[in-house]
């Protein structure tokens, strides 16, 4: 459901607040941290379109030859990003480097090797919006994500809160990872969101 109050837009699913244009700094940081330094024809997979802020930041950090596949399950979200919400993040779906796929992000993990995979499909590893998404954050799911990355490839995961269980699973799967706590709107007194950056050892 898309809700508008004046200039404030909110995307909700099953009663959960998923995204708002009031607080998107952490989504921008997710895209920036995951994609800065990727070179050449880098292949990037982004799970979750939201309001386009993660995608916009990724595109701004990527070279002209990069290719970004955005996976979004809900047709309404794609339509909103091509219509009413398009201007919020600077119309990232108009970028020629972007391909949109209507699917579950897990279905693409066996199809190609990616230089970076960004997951912003839930409120975090401990707060999956859809039951099937929870498998992405299990040990089995992390092994699949790792196998879908090139040597030295990056996995970036957005979370509303820290997840010690997820951290333990990343270590168990042999991923080198780092946690960064980021202000929701970029202000010192904002609530913090958690970004996990993991890398496959070359």
Placed side by side, the strands forming the largest sheet appear as 6-5-4-7-8-10-9
How many β-strands, per DSSP?
Answer: 10
**Number of structural units classed as domains:** 1
Query: What would you report as the Rg, rounded to the nearest angstrom?
Result: 16 Å
Run of helices and strands: EEEHEHEHEEHEHEE
| Biggest beta-sheet profile | 7 strands, mixed
Task: Set out the fold topology.
Layout: E1 2-5, E2 8-13, E3 16-20, H1 25-35, E4 43-47, H2 53-61, E5 67-71, H3 75-82, E6 98-101, E7 114-119, H4 139-147, E8 149-159, H5 164-172, E9 176-183, E10 192-199
Parallel strand pairs: 4-5, 4-7, 5-6, 7-8
Antiparallel strand pairs: 1-2, 2-3, 8-10, 9-10
Helix pairs in contact: 1-2
Can you characterise this structure?
With 202 residues, the chain is of the alpha/beta class. The chain has one domain (2-199): Rossmann fold (3-Layer(aba) Sandwich). 23% of the residues lie in helices and 31% in strands. The protein has a 7-stranded mixed sheet, with helices on both faces. A 3-stranded antiparallel sheet has the order 1-2-3, with no helix packed on it. The protein is globular and about 50 Å long.
Concise overview:
This protein is an alpha/beta fold and 202 residues long.
Please describe the structure with a list of short key phrases separated by commas or semicolons.
202 residues; single chain; 7-stranded mixed β-sheet; 23% helix; 3-stranded antiparallel β-sheet
